[in-house]
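Q&A log
Question type: sequence-to-structure
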Amino acid sequence: MSRLVEGQVRYVIDSTKYGNVSRFINHSCSPNLVNHQVLVESMDCQRAHIGLYASRDIAAGEELTYDYRYELLPGEGHPCHCESRNCRARLY
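Response status: OK
Response body:
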C-alpha cells in the first residue's frame, strides 16, 4: 500500500465496490487464462478494459485462473495456495 501513497503505482484494479464475475477468478502460478488490454470505443490505452482469454484448452469443470503477477517484495509476503507444480510459494 505504501507504493500507492508514494505515487509509484499509476493504476490499480480494485473490485471492492464495483466489479464483475472476474473478481471470482483466482490466482495460479500456472494459470489457464492470460489477460490483455482491450480497447473499446477509444484508442486511449488509459481507458482500456482487461480481457481474460484461455491460454490452453480448459476442461469442463476446471477452475479458471490467471497469474496476478504481483512483484515479489522483500520479506515474508503473502503465501500462495495455488498448489501448481510451478508455485512461487507466495503472491508478493
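Response note: Helices lie at 2-5.
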